[in-house]
## 1
Amino acid sequence: MQIRNRAFLLLGLFGVVTAGLTGCKKGGDAAADADTIVIGEVAALTGGTATFGQSSHAGTQMAIDEVNAAGGVLGKKIKLVTEDDQSKQGEAGIVAKKLVSREKVVALLGEVASGRSLEMAPIAQKAGIPMISPASTNPKVTETGDFIFRVCFIDPFQGTVMAKFALARGWKKVAVMTDVTQDYSVGLSQYFKEYFTKNGGTIVGEQSYASGDKDFKAQLTSVKEGAPDAILASGYYNEVGLMSTQAKELGIQAPLLGGDGWDSPSLVQVAGKSIEGSFFSNHFSNEDTAPRIQEFVTKYKAKHGTIPDAMAALGYDSAMILVDAIKRAGTTEGKALRDAIAATKDFEGITGKISLDAKRDANKPAVVLTIKDGKFVYVETVAP
Amino acid sequence: MDQFVQQLLNGLFLGAIYALIALGYTMVYGVLRFINFAHGDVFMLGAFGGLYVHKALAPLLNALPWPLALAVVMLASMAICAALGIAIEYFAYRPLRTRPRLNVLITAIGVSLFIEYTGQLVFGATQQPFPALIPRQNISGLGGLTVTMTQVIVVVVTTALLIGLRYIVMRTRLGLAMRALSLNPTAAALMGVNTSVVISFTFGLGSALAAAGGILYASLYPSVDPFMGIQPGIKAFVAAVLGGIGNIPGAALGGMIIGVVETLVTGYSQKLGIPSGYKEGVAFIILILILLFKPSGLLGKVEREKV
Amino acid sequence: MQLLLKYRTQAFLLLALLVSFVVSQASDNIDGYVLQIMLVAGINIILAVSLNLVNGHTGQFSLGHAGFMGVGAYMSAAVSVEMGPSILGLLGGPSTLSHGVTFVIALLVGGLCAAVCGWMVGVPSLRLRGDYLAIVTLGFNEIIRVVFQNTSSSGPFGGALGMRGIPDYSTFFWVFGIAAICIYVVASMVNSTYGRGFLAVRDDEVASESMGVNTVRYKVVAFVLGAFFAGLAGGLYAHLFGAIDPKGFGFLKSVDIIIMVILGGMGSTLGVVVAAIGLTALNEQLRDAEKFRMIVFSILLIVMMIVRPQGLLPVTFEKKRRKSA
């Protein structure tokens, strides 16, 4: 037989076999344990953004463990099934489908990155189960449908916070450095510019770079010419650390401004003294003296040996809000659960008092932190 | 004007580091006629080698004056990487010596991926800060221009290695054997050149150069991660092709040109009205143009494909 | 019966199309996750078989297949997102037929744009051989990624965020129907008298040129056709996941496809199909061991090149041909 025919045969065989196999599978898996509630989580545990994914997963897991230790919810224990999407395009969609069709999860938690949350969202929406993203700040995420929620603020708000902050300090001239390979950075820069220029500020230089770049001297030399009062570095900490060192080398004294993508101890390790006196907005400050926050920080530290970052806090909050909604709904049925989550009001989370608005976005304040003596120090809280 | 001169300086210093990495590419290609895709990854191992050597010997090194400490770390890491390079050649490339070049290229891609992902497993995926082996200070007395001590060291080391390499290739018996091998391996073997030894030596030398580059690069940009070798590796490769692959001064020239062009495009893109994000593509556009219009490179010899 | 034997390849193609149509109708009964994996496997088959035309049969070495896939994905998604509604309106509102027509138009636009890019890479690259060609295609792949990355975030291509909300048109029928057509076209081209030229170019370029084989044309045809099918695969991918971004079409995606071709055996369509299915399944199995996945594959690449450069499968097209000759 000719080779192509065999290839076709194989193709057909493959189709029939898998179709057959899966037909049988369907009946077997459906029997969900009556004593447990299964919640699915999609997180980037490996790959490029693994640091964020691992943090948010640690927070989520901690919340679920606490709930189970306290006797569970609706008289049942919660089982958290976590799937790794390897920080890769396409994978978040596949594992979300896997969680929905195989594990029969009642709700989905995740992702941190907006791009991957946008892959999961249509799947959750179509299946009619609620999804809560801990930290996807792009506005488009919750626009997907009425089953999609988030517990963090959105980029327009974060951009506005930093613009307000700069204006309040009397900084009228700001230069912008954008990581064009990260939608997060592009969005943050855009919303910053909109608010800033509308309210009397001027953008004196706009430069871009790509994730993984190490040399920013060319951009910074150009930026320097505009003599900015501050520089918005809207990307992630990996690049901001090096940028900060090089800015100081070139004699730029203006502080850097940034968003929650700065939140990593690695920032200070790389940037050293050069980053002192710069500012960024974040979801919470682990310095906050409120008892429930200090309790969270202590417990987290006891378990993981590190101080929790914002991703851990948001992961914790996303799970707690879901559990709270299950309690109020009295059921895990999709629509009822959706309505219960939507009704979340003044929930006392680690990252502030959370209310979900009509667009299913969290309405809550942001904090501005500065770097002092190598530590993130609380400066002020900016209300929406 | 000041800004332009500063940009030019930025570009030249960036180019110096590309040139340093390009030397290794060009030498391996010159002798063996194949692109060692994994060169950028050995470069990464060199940086990590420096990091770990520094960690292990920290008390001793802190007692030494910094140029000596730098030399110790650099030589140690170069030795480690030379050994690794020889091992890579022995296990992965040597069995393929008589096979088509394409098979060797695929193997090289395999080696490259292997080093990156094993590195991720061993060193972790997140970036780590690199110690300040060279004092982080600016050279004073240049008016409005900024040059750091590290940049000066990079140029000094690159020049020294360039001259040293040129000496080895042109003036020593081993260099003579390398050149003979590059012209005709069979004839060289018949004339009594021990090809295996020469090839191992070439790989060892190339990997040591990569390690030196890795440490200097990590001193300039003090954060290291397992994938840090990819970008400079590709840029250096382009530099080597631009200068005429196989040609040592060509690699240096190519590196400088790539550094300057990239910096100027980035620095002036806003004024030129193109998104500066396109600078990622600059090196590739140069590569494609040079391969299409002058495949032998700026200083390379024209070669005819033999039947 | 004679007739059937004479056109058995065509008959097989029809059968494959029919089977994929039938399975497609019943796909609601298939577990969503398994269906997804099957569709991914189908797309991988198209990618691997089309790359095999360039890398395996014609002996060129392209490291930029994901770039063509990206062009196809973006262009077809742009058609169905931007122009889809008006096409649907023209055909009297949403229906199975009008969705199908929109999808065919979108896929063809994506495939043709990718083919044009294939031509753009293929023609100038003809002066290059072996590793230089590989590097140029790699560069081209990166340039495509950079271009999409730098599009406006409010424009149709969405810049770094990429495109979202692409309709989910990719069903079992479309994916496996196109996979069958791809296999048919590539296999029958290579097996035809005309197609021997591809193998001649691979085996000895200089000799075949002196025998009057138009090597230039064969190489361009291989590149254009390979890119066209990669573009179709991209279109299917975009309409399967509903979301694409530039990072997904980088060098690493190209490497994934290359691994399939190499493990399957360069120049063996059957082997490559098996490898595409096998590796897709293996990827799912290795999900929990993600850290080791690329290490395993890279070692496999190195060992394969040393021990079995002809691919894992025992029978290759090559050997069979020699035996019968």
## 2
Amino acid sequence: MLAYATRKLLISIPVLFFATLVAFLLVATVDPIAEQRVFLLSQPGGAEQVARLEASLGLDKPLIERYGNWLGDLVRGDMGTSTENGRAVTTLLGEAIPVTMRLVIAATVISVIFGVAVGVISAVRKYSVFDNVSTFFAFLFFAMPVFWLGAVLKDLGIRFNDWWGRRIFFTIGEQSPRLDADFWGTWADRAGHIILPALTLILIQLAATSRFQRSAMLDVLESDYIRTARAKGVPRRRVITRHALRNALLPVVSYTGLTFGTLIGGTVVTEVVFNWQGMGRLFLDSLLDGDVAVSQGWLLAVGISVIAVNLLTDLVYGVLDPRVRHG
Amino acid sequence: MSNDEPGSSSEAPDPTAILSVRDLTVDFPTDDGVVQAVRGVSWDVHEGEVLAIAGESGSGKSVSVLAAMGLLPPNARVSGSISHRGQELLGMPEKQLEQLRGSAMSMVFQDPMTSLNPVMSVGEQIAEGVRVHQKLKRQESIRRAAELLDLVGIADSTRRVDSYPHELSGGMRQRAMIAMAIANDPDVLIADEPTTALDVTIQAQILDVLERARQAVDSALILITHDLGVVARTAHRLFVMYAGRTAETGLIDDVFEHPTHPYTAGLLAAIPRLDTPRGRRLIPIEGSPPSMLSPPPGCAFTPRCPRATDICPQNPPPPLTLISPPSQHAACHHPLIHPRTDSPSQQTPGEAPDA
Amino acid sequence: MDDPSRPAFVSEVVPRSQWRTVAGRFFSHRFAVGALVVALAGYVQTFMAEPLTGWNYKELSRDLSQGPSSDHWFGTDTIGHDMFAQSMRGLRVSIHVSMVVAAIATVLGTVLGAVQGWFRGRVDAGVGLLVDFLLILPLLPVLMVLATRTRAVGGSSLMFVAVVIGLFLWAPLARVVRGEVFSIREKEYIEAAAALGASNTRIIFRHLIPNVMSSVIVYATLTVATAILVETALAFLGFGIQPPEVSLGALVDEGRDAARTRWWLFYLPGAVLIALVLCVNFVGDGLRDAFDPRQRRDPRQRRDPRRRRRE
């Protein structure tokens, strides 16, 4: 297992390096001073000012050198500063990441647990009422765009609040502004805010995960070793939990890693719908403002998280599957 | 050993038999129609007996034992009777069947590559079967698993209990399957083509291990095979199936000496034997078995049968009839009649009168 | 089996052509056929909308913020656009974009996957790296960046968006085709073709790809659904197809703040979008069942004797 984990870790290093390159290059040709440039060039003596501005930002150097400098700074923990508000990119990310993490972790954990449970029950009771109902909802939510579902839930939440006469669901932001509460009060407030956005992501993830788990489970249930277990007289419940589920979890583990990138996209959209001040907003604003350093830092942070999650799913896979661990 | 007539439909299950099958039919409804896998088959297996069930793939031989184990897919329609020591198995609640499976009757499957759980150690898989039926602590059950691995000839068994299936060769895996099957001293051991998926070089070894394992637990053995060469050494009695029906049954030596059903004769002519005269060629059976989706109304072997006449395609074969005493029964319009084995002169087989 | 002397009473199954069998299974699938009909009718409707209602999607009427009526089936927005005309235009855009995306991704995925499976070795490893990378890539953020970069060079046009999305969506199919080619490359007819000196190109296009068509077709349908969702999400965020062209995603974005007061602006374009994706998914599911009956989910099959289980 140790050799397997080490190998997986070593493979991540070049991938990580590649991610820095992609994050840098994707945004590197954006002109961070586009607006000033137009303004300054229309002024007398503006050309020198533009040149000075470019030099201060390092824009006069060739791309490869700029990448080297960016990478060098990165190693020292410096991701540059925002051209919009002058704050360090690391600070901006440090504020946004915890907000988004809450949402991503809540959505992933809940959708995986329920997705596995629903998928297993559907497979074991194939064509039952439960299976048919869950198939129906899986199809429905699988076809639903995140942005639409989020907005619908938001609308329903507001309607519910109006009807109830009290605000139960918070539909704007990740927590109440100027909240003055103790530790538990803060978390209770955050919980009220996270329900609808998390539900948006959960319903869509759940649709895919449960279908995937169902078909993995059906495949496994037809396999020879399940028949062997039954031939030993192992009770049905134990055949399902000990033999079938353990094997049917394998594809779902890799699936969860592979769809993490999609989840990030869904999170960006959800944050926009519910006006969260998280990673989604930060990225959207950086793109609209041409804030190069922030966009690059954001892409890199997301890239690292995707690599880390896939490393994690590889390790979990190794724990579950001796063939991979020994191979 | 049962020498009486096993095939008649009116007969009740034999209470002295360990496993007694009467009039078993198994259908599988599919998108294209109903597959009639087994069409009225009866047999018994007695204590300590080795019964070989032979036939081509699709003849229904595996399906009939899977029905006994209650391991058919849920869409199978089963009728008839299967009883274990006089206790009816068809329609038995699953809980009760689970108690019999793996203890009273156990099974070794064809493909050891796919029949073991890839994510569970071999020792744990054997120990699990032990713990399901015996009140043993985990440690004790693992120790028992090591003993069983020893018994089936896996060296270094105390270390091998921790191995995973992918770390073992096909032959070793099949040994582990056999160890698993005898873990709870079954009355009857069922081996479904146990050597088919293996290398020719280790097939004989596995048959030896199987026989040794059977003797260790003193059980009956049902050996399912398409290869009559496999059964020649080990089996006491032979049961030949064709297209879901019984073709012939009898003591193995008698059947091998002078088959009475043309299909059995064809099968025997197609296998190499030490006692065949030099220069005699092996004769394959021409053609292939019929589709079980809509089997022909008459005798299914007709298109491939050298003895077929006009009545064969229209009329189902007669019930199993004693053709050659003491043991040989065949279901055929035109069985091969032999003179008694103790008769001094060898005559050419004559033809029986039409049934 | 071909023995002419064989008696005529032996039952035999008349071999049907594989494609006819598949088509037969597909057309016996109620949901899938219904979905296909609805999707096609929807597409036809995008051309019929203007003649039927008299409203063009660009046209501004005097009716501002009106609810659905016999004149404006889906109502009007604050500046007087007819929402039915707009929704139908958006539907047509989504269909066109997703078709182009699916075409590009399917061709790329099929060819690259087959090349990987046939040549193996370094080619396989190289393309494989790209596939692994694309599979975990957070697609939406990357497309957002690309959209800001390309807007100046016509990057908000329908074609351009479609091509960019298409270039990113071929990886799942490539992985599947590669796996299947690995297993069929050992078959006798492939070996025979290679032994007879067929060129690599000929083997790939004449022998390998025709044999993986079932997966290709099923995945192409899945890609259509994904493409629709990606295109509309981009437009929703403001990074996709730009006005005056219409995207259902942009319509939903404009309508969502009015969800409580002028529900038609938000719910109706959204419903059109979901109906489209649902139809595509049902067709895809029907195709998968038609190619692989083992995984069948035909409701008529549910009442079969499977229920009569012994346990």
